[in-house]
Amino acid sequence: MRRPVWQLSALVLVALALHTVRATEPETSPVSASQDEIKIRLDKIFAGDAPSGVDDLKAMQNHVKELTAKVLPCTVGVQIGQAWGSGVIVSKDGYVLTAAHVAGGPKRGAFFVLSDGRVVHGTTLGLNRGIDAGLMKITDKGEYPFMEMGVSKELKDGSWCLAVGHPGGYQKDRGLVVRLGRVLLTQTDAITTDCTLVGGDSGGPLFDMHGKVIGINSRIAGAITANLHVPIDAFHQGWDRMVKSDAWGHLPGQEPVLGVQGVKDVEFAKLSSVTKNSPADKGGLKEGDVVTRFGEKEITDFPSLKNAVLDHNPGDTVAVKVKRGEEQLDITIILGRRNDD
């Protein structure tokens, strides 16, 4: 197995942690600590306590190396079409967590590159776009290395974490990249850490220091060292819908826009107005048209049209069937974005 690329060398890790060491604490003569004592001390440090000396820093370094060796086999490169991202296997039969924007949509073909270089086939399942959570599945039969899903609501600000991914996409000669960092803020819809993320890391796992998956790399913030991860609890809560390949929600400002209004109190999707220069206008929809099908969805009323639009993403090209007087028309629409002019 290729060795991971470390963002922080051993010396840099020591330098990073030394600034938190209690300078006023007197030095003591070296005492051999038991494994249980080391574990208890590390648990406190990784939860946010300050290291008390070089011995603690060495113990932290050794723990991170051991943890890295455990989590790398379950972290995968993901290719969907020409786009690259990352993911993490969370079950021996090959369920893979990723970001919704990496998966793109349900039932798409995917390739997964394992840590030993093997490529296996899979498919995208459901996604909660509102929080950027996506689920995929390896379809090649076999048992796969995996790590357990943790609980993100129990995270404490200041605790240490490990982010893993394929920045810039999978690179055979480089292998995985590992970042050590700390949790800056925990919220119900996002975890913010100082683990550096770049393009291609999206969908990769965020681990706690016990090796449990606590989040999924999601969005790069304004500062490269204040990045956002999907809390693992979002996957627990949406698991059944994702397994069924449901897709729902959008990130704020990322909602798809058609640009029409419907006639009220009618039992079909008749358009009362079409916004000038909107996707609907550019596609050829007109006031008075009755939309009967939008993409793969049959449209029975205006609310069903709104729901069908929300099942898509900005930029999607959608085939629309329209009744205009006695004519039946086929129209193609390219959906817009909420924040676009």
- Helix tally equals 7
Indicate how many domains the architecture comprises: 2
Order of helix and strand elements from N to C terminus: EHHHEEEHEEEEEEEEEHEEEEHEEHEEE
Radius of gyration: 24 Å
Main beta sheet? 6 strands, antiparallel, barrel
User: How is the CATH topology of the largest domain named?
Assistant: Thrombin, subunit H
**CATH architectural group of the largest domain:** Beta Barrel
Mean of all residue-level pLDDT scores: 87
CATH class of the largest domain: Mainly Beta
- Identify low-pLDDT runs: 6-30
* Main sheet strand line-up: 8-9-10-13-12-11
* Approximate helicity band: 10-25%
For the record, give the distance between the C-alpha atoms at the N and C termini, rounded to a whole number: 49 Å
Number of strands: 22
> How much strand?
25-35%
The structural class is alpha+beta
Overall spatial form? elongated
What do these coordinates show?
- The chain is α+β, with helices and mostly antiparallel strands.
- It folds into two domains: 1-21 and 36-247, Thrombin, subunit H, CATH 2.40.10.120; 256-337, Pdz3 Domain (Roll).
- Helix content is 20%, strand content 33%.
- The strands form four sheets. The protein has a six-stranded antiparallel beta barrel.
- Helix 1 (10-18) crosses helix 3.
- The radius of gyration is 24 Å and the shape is elongated.
- The model is unreliable at 6-30 (pLDDT under 50).
